Amino acid sequence: MLMVEPLERPLSSYIHTQFVTADENSSIAEAVKILQPKNVEIILVTSSLNGEYVGIVTDSDILEKVVMKGEDSDLISLKSIMSSPIITLPSSSTVRQAIQLMRVHKIKHLAVTDSTNNDEGKKIIGTVTQQYLAEIIRIAVIEKTFRSYRKIIREHYKPIFANVSIILQFSGLLMVVPALLGTILGEWQSSIGIYLAFVGMSLTGYIMNTLGEKSPLNLKQSSIVVVLSFVLLSLFGSLPYMYINPFWDGIDFFSLFASSFLESTSGFTTTGLSTIIHPENLPESFSFYRSYTLWVGGLSFVYLVMALYYPETKLAGMRHLLGGGILRFKQLLSTISVIFAIYTAILILLFIIFGNINILDSISLSFGTLSSGGFVPTSTILNSVNSSTLIIIMGGMIIAALPFAFHFGIFSKEIEATKEIKEILVFIILITICIVLFLFIESSFSKNEWLSSVFHVISASTTTGFQFIDLSHISTSGKILLIVLMLIGGTAFSTAGGIKIARIILIFHKLINYKQNTTTFHDKNHNHNNSQPTFISSTAIQFRKRIKPFYKSNYKAKKLQKNNDTLSMSMVFLDKYKYHILSDKAFREAVFVVVLFILFTMITAICVYYLNINTKNINFINVIFETASTISNTGLSAGITTMHLDSFSKLILSFNMIMGRFEIIAILYIFISKLRV
Predict the structure, then answer these.
(1) Contact criterion met (CB below 8 Å) for 137 and 6
(2) 437: pLDDT strictly greater than 80
(3) How far is CA 43 from the centre of its chain?
(4) Which of 203, 368, 407, 568 has the highest CB neighbour number within 10 Å of its CB?
């Protein structure tokens, strides 16, 4: 429907139908008494002879011609101050015509007649004012200006609001579990803090739901939904930390927020990096809450919630971001809700039986293990003496870093688990090689505590981040090895973070094929150029000698042309193969992700280093270790992330965690349209 310009709209839409009439001989005092109860500005003056309209008096006329001059209102009649003759316009006229007429006659009020009445004396049905029409035009212009923006919001952002609202309300509901635990245990400070997160998520979700509109998402919208969801979850998840303040007394608000946001982000992104040295001093329910956020964020509940509201065919954009492998929604739901629940129950029992750990700490430790998190309920729960606990955790960490499809294949006949075996074998071989290398590099450290070394290598490669030794004391070579392991990460579509083994395999596979094709072509070309007949007759030799003076120059020219043609064919072939590789979206994105991980690791490391350059014992390789750990969602620390780290540095590391949770490229999808093609 086309919108009519405001100046061309009919005058009938803007008529004030409430007005008063008075006889021309009435006094001003009498007229004012009529005006006040009606709350109108205009008096239509009628003739005392025939009752027809003969003029108009406004409140401005009374003010200027009577009050300001000090005249007695009882002695002045309407006839003496009215504007006459009365100017009228049919109701079918346009706003433009009304404004033009008022401008010509230098008036601010206009009487409107009934255009459907064909009688000679047309009936006045109302009035319009210049001020009111000007206001209407101003509003219309503003509406026209912002109409396109409203369309953009309706089409592009309302679906985002609707979907984020679902996630917030769902996650708010999940927060009831640790809040109720705190209530049962009588830990009121902890439960109140968690209830604040519940209220914040639920209320914001409700507000966004009223503003939103449920509809399918494209890739850009999906990217915004998942990134915004984790930012908001981290913000609301920081409220319990801010309420309890597990950091230090007298902390300023900004430092409290930065520290709380770091802890919360570390939980929901399954990074597990923490500045809290002694978590055993926290209330039990709050310690459970920290591990619970790892579980919630680690098992891709965002994807599950989205899938509950949309058909699978419309979740291509979300699946592209969060993975999905070969699992359909029901299979994924079975894997996460059933299979991982079984794993969790098994781990809890093993910790209780073999680790002598109480049930609540066993639950928290199981959450941290299977979500590839890294929060621990107590600072002494991991040590080289309790080898049985370390072995159980190592097994759990490796299980969590394997693809969901593999787990589903083990328990179901619908999918063969062997389909994921190539990536898993590469992952296991990589861990094994790096364990040997780390034991060799840190030979003096690993001599008596080899199990500790194996544990931390597995912790780095699975991006779980469990740690009980001071990694700032290991050699630079050892740190670099762990950095590489953290950045590579675990297998695709698992709870592990990092670049992922599948991408590394893809890149090597493409490059090896490229090299083999290039080598094969050059070998064929070389053999073709060097091939000569094995027998030449004497007649042919004599003939060649006779024509040699004439043939020599022409032969060289042809040979040169032939070689040039061969070289051109070679270049064309290689260029086409290079183009084929670079046009492969999967290969291009894999390389892009690797570059982005390395690039953001270095950029954020430089920022953190210079923000803390005056800090005692600051070491650049340790800073790189820290930024690599956060962007890969690992959580291992070389001693940089402490309570007294610069607040801006904490926000940078938090930003890294969110970026890494969606492998960086998801955020770039929001801003770079070419990547979404």
Answers:
(1) yes
(2) yes
(3) 61
(4) 368
